[in-house]
Amino acid sequence: MALLSITLCSAIIAPEPKEILLWPKGAPGSEGKTGAEKVRLSDQKDIVISGVNKPSITPYLPVGKNASGVAVIVAPGGGHSELWISHEGYSPAKWLRDHGIAAFVLKYRLAKEQNSTYTVDKDELADIQRAIRLVRSRAKEWGIDTAKVGVMGFSAGGELAALAGMRFTAPDGHAADPIDRESDRPNFQALIYPGNIRRLEVTKSSPPAFLAAGYKDRPDIAEGIANLYLKYKQANIPAELHIYGNVGHGFGIRASNKGAMTEWTRQFAIWLTDMGFKK
């Protein structure tokens, strides 16, 4: 009994994974920025972060035979002014980890918070691209297949994930930083009620896409995501679309979620299997 109690207590108090800075010596564009991050709790007890000057990833790694070799960088939303990092970051990452998928919660710089000098297309995109390359650079250590590294984003994070699937660059085999020698092209993307859909373009080199949103979301998303699906179809890029009839914006993963929307994670895992990424 004593041994069982110690084991249970160890499981309960096991520390959360530690975040890994994308640029240990400082992110390009953040020189001289020393302000501390701000953390608040929402009315629903979500952790909300702002003031990010040191972008990072926090790894949630599956263990043993459960590990599939698939990896996902998870980008929370928050209108590019905050990161709602609980239900759109940590909770999805834990679900993915528990289902054999390595997950990395991205803490990216924010272009639209007050007095920000960052931009979405330069600094935020640089953060998610660096995260993809960093994960690939440590693939052997983390048991990841470099051909199975994708992105998942929610709301503003969905826009960012989609941009990563649009604006990838060829790896630089001669880069001084070994991380920059890796590809930043995601192998797949999961766009969950992504923002600014109208600006998202699809080409014949875009990665496959899993799309999900709520019928009761605002029209630019609830209707726009259907138009985005058609762009993938017209470009002959495999895509799957789920619109849940009784939910609006920002559902993510919460204990209070009910109904069909609670199935989106399982449907995403099935899609990964259908696409050949997960056995």
Task: Report on the architecture of this protein.
It is a single chain. By secondary structure, this protein is of the alpha/beta class. The chain has eight helices and eleven strands. The strands form two sheets. Strands 1-4-7-5-8-9-10-11 form an eight-stranded mixed sheet, sandwiched between helices. A three-stranded antiparallel sheet has the order 2-3-6. Strand 2 (38-41) and strand 3 form a beta hairpin. Residues 1-14 have low confidence and may be disordered.
The SSE string, one letter per element, is: HEEEEEEHEHHEHEEHHEH
Strand content: 15-25%
Average pLDDT confidence is 94
Strand order of the largest sheet: 1-4-7-5-8-9-10-11
What's the overall geometry? globular
**How many helix segments?**
8
Would you identify the regions where 5 or more consecutive residues have pLDDT less than 50?
Answer: 1-14
Q: Assign a percent range to the helix content.
A: 25-40%
Q: How many beta-strand runs?
A: 11
- The secondary structure category is alpha/beta
Largest sheet: number of strands, sense, barrel closure: 8 strands, mixed
Radius of gyration: 18 Å
Tell me the distance between the termini: 38 Å
